[in-house]
User: What shape does this take?
Amino acid sequence: MDDEELARRFRESARGAGRRAPLYRRFGEAIADDPETARLLLHAPADQRMPVLLYACVHWILLREPGHELRRWYPNLTVRRAEKPPGGDPYPAFREFCARNEERLAGLLAERTTQTNEVGRCALFLPVLAEVAAGDRPIAHLDVGASAGLNLLLDRYRYRYEPDDGTGETHTVGGSSTIGGSTVELVCGTRGDVPLPRAVPPIADRIGLDQSPIDVTRTADADWLRACVWPDQADRFDRLDRALAVASVDPPPIVRGDLVDDLRATVARLDPDAHLVVTASWVLNYLDAERRRAFVDTLDAVAADRDLTWCAAESPTLTAELPWPAGVADHDRAHLTHLLRVDWRAGHRTVAHLAVAHPHGYWLHWA
Ligand SMILES: C[S@@+](CC[C@H](N)C(=O)[O-])C[C@H]1O[C@@H](n2cnc3c(N)ncnc32)[C@H](O)[C@@H]1O
Assistant: This one.
């Protein structure tokens, strides 16, 4: 990977960070013009060379060690202590931190993988699962790249869908009960004809598949999940902690394995009488083009034995080999999250582009 490709990745990450994440947007813009810092990413294995991994490794150190000057620019590390991040450019402090901690960062980059488990994405999947379940069919849910499996618990959260333009009514769905002393409420702005579910769908069976599963009951694992969250977004730390509390009462089963090689064996563990729904969010971008094709081929092979629905929340720019309908990859917002739904019924495959969405589920614009 050359300097040009590294710069492109950081520039693209700055674009993706957008208004909600000014700190990482600034880092992305600055590192794109700073090859020396960008090259730190080369310590990561080729399939993990995403800017967010560098940010997570830096954040991991800051979360565990209070003494670093750079912490002052991280809203999540200051707001709770009623401090304000200093004004001015945070990048010189970031750069200096990276230079001073190069060896430690190199070690972390070599061994860690991006594991962000974003429960906000449940608000994107819920309408699809609810529609599939509408015929009173219980669901067998398999989440590939499940991380800690928090998105397998979408029937335990509460949802508030609010029309983006301020017209129309807020639609609330999901439980009001407290689990593990915690309630998770996900708020999602909507535009267009989102098929808003009347109830959370019945989940008869669930399982996650991940190459390095996170154990919600282990503090160090939970800390790594926190390190993967973007510091500007205080609400995400709060909902992550709430979801971890819910999950720790009855953690979802997660199988360690590869989402291509171990897919069929994992499907075989699920209730054969329930309708299989496979979800994948921000994981297929970590595969190379050939493995992405192999994943789709494997789903085709699974469909020879049982009907299924697959819903992906991925960026078409980064996953061009998925069966996106024509035109989606050229969408002016193809770098954002798009929802792809593929159904197999009696071996016959249908494909639909459902929506454009915020990567963390803050909004859902139906196509
Ligand atoms: C960015 S996280 C997304 C987690 C979750 N899907 C979500 O949306 O919250 C990507 C996850 O995919 C897993 N992963 C990456 N490549 C994989 C593969 N080939 N097989 C299984 N899991 C994989 C990583 O370990 C990580 O937990």
